[in-house]
Amino acid sequence: MPRETLVMIPPMLSDGRVFAPQIQVLSRAHAVMVAPPTCGERIEEIASQILTWSPSKFALCGMGMGGMVAMELMRRAPDRITRIALISTNAQADTPDGAAAREPHIIAALSGRWDDVLQHEINSTWMAPTTDKVELVRQLTEMGHDIGATTYVKQARALQRRKDQQATLRQIQQPTAIICGRHDGQYRLKRHEFLAELVPYAKLEIIEDAGYIPTVEAPDATTDALDRWMAQPLMLRM
């Protein structure tokens, strides 16, 4: 049986480097493609672009904002997705307060205060106590600078306008992994437990020594969780 292609969607202000440890291992057995969520001001636009160049069938992994895009891909093209992994993410729409809170940072990015925006968006309190926070903040800041303020504004607008995807999760029949760090300060464990309850075949994988960025904070444990997910037998959608 041919190996599945794995499409990985990074979080906001990140690129493929956030998945580097996983790509190094998983690419030994699978073709791995990275699709940064940078090509639109709506989650729907980003998902449409990804679908234009993705294989006819593929496994899908999304983290943070990338997980929100992954859920939209599942809503639009469930027959093309063989399995889905959601890492450190949220299925609900932005609240009015949450959407309004993004505006000052959008304005700051547009007015040249980009370093201030990065300092706000890269929050070390979301990381595990055992994480080398100085090094991880350095890595994330480097990616953020490479992504740039213009793309940040698009991503922030897309997050403000995103739709609730709880109904989408309830319809998933494919093998599903919900992966989160035990110490995630952005999307708490209870939120991920709720996501796992929504999906009929979901397996919740809790990464003990990680926070919001388990792929970097605890790379081996996260890779093992993804490897187990990729090894699950495919289920026929009813």
Alpha-beta classification: alpha/beta
Low-confidence sequence ranges: none
- Total helix count? 11
Average predicted confidence as pLDDT:
95
Radius of gyration: 17 Å
Shape: globular
**Main sheet: which strands, in order across?**
2-1-3-4-5-6
Which percent band covers the strand fraction? 5-15%
Give the number of DSSP strands. 6
Specify the biggest β-sheet.
Answer: 6 strands, parallel
What string gives the helices and strands in order? EHEHEHEHHHHHEHEHH
- Tell me roughly what share of residues is in helical segments: 40-55%
Query: Roughly how many Å apart are the termini?
Result: 22 Å
Structural description of this entry:
The chain has about 240 residues and is of the alpha/beta class. Helix content is about 45%, strand content about 15%. The protein has eleven helices and six strands. The protein has helices at about 20-25, 45-55, 65-75, 95-110, 115-120, 135-145, 150-160, 165-170, 190-200, 215, 220-230, and strands at about 5-10, 30-35, 60-65, 80-85, 175-180, 200-205. Strands 2-1-3-4-5-6 form a six-stranded parallel beta sheet, with helices on both faces. The longest helix has 15 residues, at about 95-110. The two termini are about 20 Å apart.
